[in-house]
Design goal:
The complex is a heterodimer of chains A (635) and B (179). Chain A is mainly beta. Chain A contains six helices and 34 strands. The longest helix of chain A has 15 residues. The chains are: A mainly beta (635), B alpha/beta (179).
């Protein structure tokens, strides 16, 4: 252990020792030679990781802007995520969503990392996300970045097949009072308020509160699923420029919700978090950022399980442009979780209470082989977790800027999905004899991903194509302990797999008034048992995703202060669940009689009375057509 | 625990090395330097000496530029006129200047400052909130990590400051509400 620690520190120090002094004078002279147009396109240092022009980023990234969200009529984060065509998004019931990238979707999808303002929203139970408690005031969202493909070098261990980065606005951009309220058939009611103001000359703050109530979904037989859902949330954000070079952010949220259940008492969810950040540009070519957060969640699903989770996390990262050709980013992070599960007769996590630690370090160097033309990026993440020890996740990327409008890129990455509690510590039923048991020897699932893409941006057209092939080793399998007896079964790494496909997105501004945005994704996932494995599911429990999906959003500004927006989506069949293909349409009409007031009517899932998006024939729920009206005042 | 301690030491070692500077203001400094070339002022009064009068860029309040503005204009001229910097602590200190950058530290005094300058041919620039709406001439706004310009053309015209169409073309023109 001592020797590995020494190695770890040596690597850190080696990275740190790269000289960080920058040639400011040179860059100033270079800036002075720019035209006004060029100068306006210069990216000023943002607070973390290094700024990168989207058209140059060598990865499959899609961005959902505030306008996209507003025009879609989305009322929750998962609904907004439907706007990224490189995600598989399926509504399961009133509160549950299955969201993933590049397949491997399920209600416990475990290969996607989701961050809200830098805070990883994550349950160590299954390395996934409880979407019912991830909410923000959507009008305060600046943008959502969705990266499909491995992001494991820079981001955390969940980033096997994608990263979702929800970024809310700086408090200085949300001054004033915003009040909105409305309701309808599925979204019974939604009310929210936000107030933002200044703190002296250097700071800004905002506070917000929101509450909603949602109608239940339907059982396969058409009866009420009694999953009515009520929730309240509040929070704040404070941004303060302590000096011109110290930016501080303090933000937090609190929420409390109730969801009805058919055969047991209501599900109770509650939680709170607080995040502190500090960003400090050291020079024009170097900056440092640190963040710490505490996140607490409580979940009680009577009859199934309860969980109290505390997460403590601290991160530090440093960016520097070195010797004009090297963009170096490196960082370290530490996370501690305290997870306490209340077991039931149905299932158990044993031991019920665990504390786990993660220690990560990453370093990445983007090297300008030919400045403005050819860049190679190499990097690695080294992570230590309590289950499998050290994990190394390197990646290499190459981007070639053909001309000012076109970029070709390619990448090869290794990523791992480290064990979560469900893999090793899960037992069902809650007492022996168990028919299902966690695998004490469950190791990380490994991925090797090859990607290539092309991005084009000229004038009113933005077009992007990403293709990928990934090979997986040691995917989760369910093994018979005493074959041919079907039970008991134990969790192991008995499957391998591959996935391949293409993600196409485009945006086109037809005129000043009319904008189109669309995407098309083809995806194949094949999973097979390794020799010796008794798992015959061929991945039915691991990956439930459609072979293809299509999305088109149209945003039209009409005369007389009217806006008409529509979003059409086609989602292919999920063969492993026999969920049929479906097409649906959302539409929104907004009238702005005065600048401060928006009156909207929104229809969601308009094409069918009800439809199914996810789940086996008995477990699936029907999602109904919904219509709601909303008024929003801005003072 | 030893590892944690080591990291803490490492982190604190890092934090003390550097002199603070914001690249945002490097870009803004270059913008200010550019403004000089895209703006025309009424001809300066003919001075007694043979030397052409300097073109003065003033900074009112806490200087956010660090060395950047100094470096951006060092040795630069507009025609024969050397470009020079002046720093002012308070409104009363403002002497003859052609461009005045009003620091965010003066945010609350902006209406007062503008009324003092009223109709003097000084190009007023700030990155304070709603500066152009309050009668300032050029406001920097940061949007998606890029610097944008908002220009109050009427305020400039009232002060006899002529802004080139080249600059207007890349800016958002702010129209003050009719009184």
């Amino acid at each position: 252990m001592t020797s590995t620690r020494t190695l770890f520190l040596t690597v850190l120090l080696a990275v740190w020792a790269i000289p960080a002094r920058a040639q400011q004078r040179d860059s100033l002279e270079a800036l002075k030679r720019l035209t006004l147009d060029e100068l306006m396109n210069v990216e000023v240092m943002s607070v973390s990781r290094r700024p990168e022009r989207l058209s140059e980023a060598p990865s499959a990234i899609q961005v959902i802007t505030q306008d996209d969200i507003r025009q879609s009529g989305a009322t929750s984060l998962p609904e907004a995520l439907r706007l990224a065509s490189n995600l598989q998004v399926a509504q399961v019931d009133a509160r549950q969503w299955a969201i993933s990238a590049r397949g491997f979707n399920s209600t416990t999808a475990n290969k996607l990392l989701v961050l809200i303002d830098g805070r990883t929203v994550y349950t160590p139970l299954f390395s996934g996300v409880f979407w019912d408690v991830q909410d923000v005031l959507l009008s305060d969202v600046e943008r959502i970045e969705v990266i499909s493909g491995p992001g494991a070098t820079l981001w955390g261990a969940n980033a096997v097949n994608g990263v979702i980065n929800v970024i809310t606005k700086d408090a200085k951009d949300t001054r004033g009072l915003l009040v909105s309220g409305g309701g309808g058939t599925e979204l019974r009611g939604l009310g929210s308020g936000r107030y933002g103001g200044g703190l002296g000359a250097r700071g800004s703050y905002r506070i917000y509160g929101k509450a909603f109530s949602r109608d239940p979904t339907l059982l396969p037989n058409g009866l009420d699923n009694t999953d009515d859902w009520r929730m309240g949330q509040g929070g704040f954000r404070l941004d303060y420029d302590a000096s011109t070079s110290h930016h501080l952010t303090l933000q937090g949220d609190w929420y409390n919700g109730r969801i009805d259940q058919q055969t047991a008492a209501d599900i109770a969810v509650s939680g709170a978090n607080v995040v502190a950040k500090w960003a400090h540009p050291l020079s024009a070519k170097s900056d440092i950022a640190a963040q710490a957060y505490y996140d607490r969640t409580h979940r009680d699903i009577p009859g199934t399980f309860g969980e109290d989770l505390d997460v403590y996390d601290i991160d530090l990262q440093h960016y520097a442009l070195v010797a004009t050709r090297h963009n170096v980013v490196w960082g370290v992070g530490y996370r501690l979780i305290n997870d306490n599960v209340a077991n039931t007769a149905a299932l158990a996590f044993l031991p019920a209470h665990v504390a786990r630690q993660w220690l990560t370090a990453f370093a990445q160097d983007e090297i300008a082989l030919a400045p403005e033309r050819l860049h190679v990026t190499i990097g690695t993440k080294i992570e230590h977790n309590d289950y499998t020890g050290f994990e190394i996740q390197p990646s290499g990327r190459l981007s070639w800027t053909i001309d000012s409008a076109s970029t070709l890129w390619t990448a090869i990455s290794r990523a791992v999905r480290t064990p979560s509690r469900i893999d090793r510590e899960f037992f069902a039923p809650g007492q022996p004899p168990y028919f299902l048991a966690g695998g004490p020897n469950f190791e990380s699932e490994e991925e090797l991903a090859y990607e290539a893409g092309y991005r084009h941006h000229r004038g009113a057209l933005l077009f992007s194509l990403a293709t990928f092939y990934s090979r997986y080793h040691g995917l989760r399998s369910l093994e018979q302990v005493n074959p041919p007896a079907a039970t008991p079964i134990v969790i192991a790494n008995g499957q391998d797999g591959e996935s391949y496909g293409a993600e196409l997105t485009a945006q086109y501004r037809v005129s000043d008034r009319w904008r189109l945005r669309g995407g098309y994704t083809e995806l194949r996932v094949h999973i097979w048992p390794n020799p010796g494995s008794t798992d015959t599911s061929r991945g039915a429990t691991e990956s439930q995703a459609p072979d293809r999906q299509f999305f088109l959003q149209s945003s039209l500004n009409l005369p007389a202060h009217l806006e008409l927006d529509a979003g059409f989506r086609y989602v292919g069949a999920i063969a492993k669940q026999q969920v049929p293909a479906y097409a649906e349409l959302n539409a929104r009409l907004t009238w702005r009689p005065i600048a401060a007031l928006d009156l909207s009517i929104v229809g969601q899932n308009l094409l069918h009375e009800q439809h199914v998006e996810f789940g086996t024939t008995t477990a699936r729920r029907q999602i109904e057509r919904g219509v709601y009206g909303m008024a929003q005042w801005h003072f | 625990m030893a590892l944690l301690n080591a990291l803490t030491v490492l982190a604190s070692a890092l934090l003390v090395v550097q002199n603070p500077r914001a690249s945002e203001y490097q870009v803004k400094a270059v913008f200010l330097f550019n403004f000089v070339q895209f703006v025309d002022w009424p001809s300066p009064a003919v001075s007694d000496s043979q030397r052409p009068p300097p073109l003065l860029i003033g900074i009112l309040g806490t200087d956010p530029f660090g060395p950047f503005l100094e470096e951006a204009v060092r040795g630069e001229r507009l025609g024969a006129r050397p470009i020079q910097l002046r720093r002012y602590r308070a409104i009363a200190d403002i002497g003859e200047c052609n461009v005045l950058f009003i620091s965010r530290s003066e945010n609350e005094r902006v209406p007062e400052i503008l009324s003092v300058l009223k109709n003097r041919p000084v190009l007023t620039v700030s990155d304070g909130d709603a500066f152009a709406d309050h009668g300032g001439m050029i406001q920097f706004v940061t949007d998606k990590n890029r610097i944008r310009l908002r220009i109050n053309l009427e305020a400039a015209q009232a002060a006899n400051v002529t802004i080139s169409s080249k600059l207007l073309r890349v800016a958002e023109i702010v129209r003050p509400p009719r009184r």
